[in-house]
Amino acid sequence: MIKLFMAEDDSLLLHIYEKKFKANGYVIEFAMDGEEAISKLKNMEMKTSLVLLDGQMPRKSGFEVIEEMKKDPELKNIPVVFLTNLYEEADEKRGLSLGVVACLVKSNFIPSEIVSKVKEICEKNNIK
Predict the structure, then answer these.
(1) Cα(4)–Cα(51) distance, rounded to whole angstroms?
(2) Given strand 80-84, what is the order of strands in its sheet?
(3) With helix as H, strand as E and coil as C, how does the chain read?
(4) Structural domain of residue 98, as residue ranges?
(5) Least packed by Cβ within 10 Å: which of 5, 80, 109, 124?
(6) What is the pLDDT of residue 87?
(7) 32 part of a folded domain
(8) Number of domains present in the structure of the chain
C-alpha cells in the first residue's frame, strides 16, 4: 500500500486531492504549511512512501521542507514530488538538485491527472 504525504496550503485543493487519492487506493496524510509538514513527517508512525510538496507555503517553502528532510536520516531517502503553480525553470533545477523525483505544475493538470502522474512516478521509481 502506498502512503502519500501532501503539503498544500489551499484547503479546497487539499480536500479534492484527498478524495481523489483515497478513491484510487492511496493512504494520504496532509499538512497545511511547511512547519506542519516537517513536524508530521518526523512523527509519523507509518513511514510515508512519497511526499508531494507545494512550492509556495506559509511558514516554510517546499524548498525549505526538502532541505530539512535531506538533513534528517529518517526522511532523507523519501522521494519527493514538487507541485507548484509558479513554474520557473530555475525552481525546477533547484528542486532536481535537491533530489526531487518530479516537478509538476498544478495549473497544467486537473486533480485526477495529478493522481495519474503520481501513479506513473511511483511505478517508474518502484515506490511502494
Answers:
(1) 6
(2) 27-31, 3-7, 50-54, 80-84, 102-105
(3) CCEEEEECCCHHHHHHHHHHHHHCCCEEEEECCHHHHHHHHHCCCCCCCEEEEECCCCCCCHHHHHHHHHHCCCCCCCCEEEEECCCCHHHHHHHHHCCCCEEEEHHHCCHHHHHHHHHHHHHHCCCC
(4) 8-121
(5) 124
(6) 63
(7) yes
(8) 1
Query: Cα(first)–Cα(last) distance of the chain, in Å?
Result: 6
Sign of the Cα torsion 109, 51, 65, 19 reads positive
| Residue 34 located in a structural domain | yes
Largest Cα span, the chain: 36
In a domain, 128, yes or no: no
Whether 57 is in a domain gets the answer: yes
Q: Which residues pair with 28 in a beta bridge?
A: 4
Tell me the three cell numbers of residue 1.
Answer: 500500500
Q: What is the CATH number of the domain that holds 82?
A: 3.40.50.2300
| 60 phi and psi angles, rounded to 5 deg | -160, 135
Q: How many CB atoms lie within 10 A of CB 114?
A: 22
